[in-house]
Design goal:
Order of helices and strands: HHHHHHHHHHHHHHHHHH
Structural class: mainly alpha
Strand content: under 5%
Distance between the termini: 46 Å
Oligomer: single chain
CATH architecture: Up-down Bundle
Low-confidence stretches: 189-203
Largest sheet: none
Helix content: over 70%
Radius of gyration: 20 Å
CATH topology: Growth Hormone, Chain: A
Length: 392
């Protein structure tokens, strides 16, 4: 018997855990940068390993989920990411840090594909939009993560101990909620679809050849790049370019996450009333304006306002992309989601390395302006696609 409400709560909790795990890393970036004596470009290269881990595992997760069920993948990936999180400030070697970030990215990447796959199934069973609220829990985690670290360090606890405590708490949370997730048989019964591996289903093989999947993946890449800029560079931008105290540098990502969480928690109602393409166009333009405000204003209040606008604008774009990927014709939902997720999270996890390269040869401000231009391109692309569809 499927206890849908408990399954929904458990799925929301996994999204929360994923958000806290990644966000708890954000305030640590400047510490790692200083501890390992890295410049912007070197820090960007180090962050590349986090992205590499996610990119390697995401297609594998899409292949594995139909065979073992999304619940087992969620469990393995959540434990891996939380364990590695507790080790990130325990190492002093650049190469060992690179390995840890690769494993951290592997855990987060697998968890992302599996929890979204699970969320799509729960949404199908509910027969109404819930993806925005699920991603809202991820964004709530983005609030809790930095605030936990800031709060604990303000008590005089070392950052390394803080990160270890957070990782243990997250691991216990996952173990408690695991039993409420749908198992493989429940996924089959609830979806009404065969659990036959996708190796026997040509639709699984077509995901990477489908133009709609590539379009969604490319748009996802850009939006996630903007989110990755907030995660990995907001603290450094506030400290090094706006003169903010290091103890407050995590407020940038927290402000972004608060705005994103609020908008995503309201997002299901918006998606039910407003066409998704209009939300994508308006949201990407609003996020671009927010980045420009953050770059061109000197005051902390206005910079934080800019980050808030980025959060409000980008909030519901990714849930719309993921829901749309589950409806692509001729491709199974899991295969399409894995492909779009892989391309999208390339933006969040490798994108910051690209921004670091730009920052090293120009400034971080120029890198953020470049991100704003890409967001404008998302709005233009969706507008053009709509007009082409109408003409057809």
């Amino acid at each position: 018997m499927i206890h849908l409400k408990k399954s929904k709560i458990a799925t929301q909790t996994i999204f929360l855990v994923c958000g806290i795990s990644l966000a708890a890393w954000a305030p640590m970036v400047p510490l790692v940068k200083d501890r390992l004596r890295l410049n912007d470009s070197e820090m960007g290269i180090l962050l590349l390993f986090l992205g590499a881990g996610a990119i390697v595992i995401m297609p594998i997760s899409g292949w594995l989920i139909p065979r073992v069920g999304s619940r087992k993948v969620v469990m393995f990936s959540a434990i891996l990411s939380t364990v590695v999180l507790g080790c990130l400030l325990q190492v002093e070697s650049r190469w060992l840090m690179a390995l840890c970030l690769f494993l951290f990215g592997t855990g987060l990447g697998a968890m992302d594909v599996s929890m979204n796959s699970h969320g799509l199934l729960v949404q199908q069973l509910y027969q109404k939009p819930i993806m925005s609220s699920l991603h809202g829990q991820y964004s709530v985690g983005g609030i809790i993560g930095p605030l936990l670290i800031i709060g604990l360090t303000s008590l005089g606890i070392s950052p390394a101990v803080c990160l270890l405590a957070v990782s243990i708490l997250l691991m216990l949370t996952v173990l408690i909620q695991f039993r409420h997730l749908l198992d493989r048989d429940q996924e089959k019964d609830g979806s009404g679809q065969s659990s036959k591996p996708e190796q026997d289903n040509p639709k699984g093989e077509r995901a990477w050849k489908n133009s709609a999947v590539w379009f969604l993946g490319t748009m996802c890449f850009i939006v996630f790049l903007a989110e990755g800029a907030m995660l990995d560079w907001s603290a450094i931008f506030l400290r090094d370019y706006k003169g903010t105290a290091e103890s407050l540098a995590g407020l940038g990502y927290a402000a972004f996450s608060v705005a994103m969480a609020v908008m995503r928690l309201l997002g299901d109602r918006l998606v039910a009333r407003i066409p998704g393409d209009k939300l994508v166009i308006a949201g990407s333009l609003l996020a671009a304006v927010g980045l420009l405000i953050a770059v061109f204003t000197p005051w902390l209040v206005t910079v934080l306002l800019g980050f808030i606008l980025v959060g409000l604008g980008a909030a519901n774009i990714v849930p719309i992309f993921f829901s749309e990927s589950g409806r692509v014709a001729g491709v199974t939902a899991t295969a399409a989601l894995a492909a779009v997720s892989t391309m999208g999270y390339t933006g969040q996890l490798i994108g910051p390395a690209l921004l670091g390269f730009i920052a090293e040869h120009t400034t971080l401000s120029v890198a953020l302006i470049f991100t704003a231009v890409l967001l404008i391109a998302v709005a233009v692309s969706y507008l053009v696609r709509n007009r082409v569809s109408i003409r057809r």
